[in-house]
Every structure is written in structure tokens, then in C-alpha cells.
Amino acid sequence: MGRSPFGGLPKFTSAKRGGGTLELGWQGGAGLYQLQSRTNLSQGGWQNVGAGTSVQSNTVSVTNQNNFFRVRSGP
User: Fold this and answer.
1) Alpha carbons 25 and 55: distance in angstroms, whole number
2) Would residue 49 count as lying in a domain?
3) HEC profile for the chain?
4) Angle at CA 67, nearest 5°, toward 63 and 68?
5) pTM of this prediction?
6) How many domains does the chain have?
7) pLDDT tens digits for 9-53?
8) What's the domain range around 70?
């Protein structure tokens, strides 16, 4: 695996919706990735979505409420 053109932090590179799910993909970062979400950017904390993974994608169920996502990487 070569050096990522995205630098040290993971960045979303794709979002595909279909069949009641949303598949999010990212590049960059290293180690274990943790997808997190929250329904309001100015209030509340980030909640983990599933378990940490070494894969650079995650599929989540689509709900009727707004959701904001971020992905964190670490050792």
C-alpha cells in the first residue's frame, strides 16, 4: 500500500445510497477506523457507529432524521 494522497487524516471519498442503506467510503489515516454520527452539529456528542474496523468503508441504515458523520483513525 502506498502513501495516501489525502495525508494523515481520513477524508470521505464516496457516499452511495440504495436499498435503505448508505455506504460511506474514505481514504487516508491509518490503524483502526471508527465511524461516528450525530444528529445535530451544534449539540450533543458523537456516537460510535458499529465497531472499529481496518476497512475504509462502512454501511449504515438510512433513517428519517438528519445524520452527520465523521471517521476517526488511531492506533
Assistant:
1) 9
2) yes
3) CCCCCCCCCCEEEEEEEECCEEEEEEECCCCEEEEEEECCCCCCCCEECCCCECCCEEEEECCCCCCEEEEEEEC
4) 155
5) 0.84
6) 1
7) 999 999 999 989 999 999 999 889 999 999 999 998 999 999 999
8) 17-74
Length of the chain in terms of residues written: 75
Domain presence at residue 12? no
Task: Find where cell 456516537 sits.
Answer: 47
Q: Is residue 9 part of a domain?
A: no
Nearby residues of 45 by Cβ (< 8 Å), 6 or more positions away: 38
By the 8 A CB rule, do 59 and 47 touch? no
Q: Is the pLDDT of residue 54 over 80?
A: yes
Residue 70 has pLDDT above 90, yes or no: yes
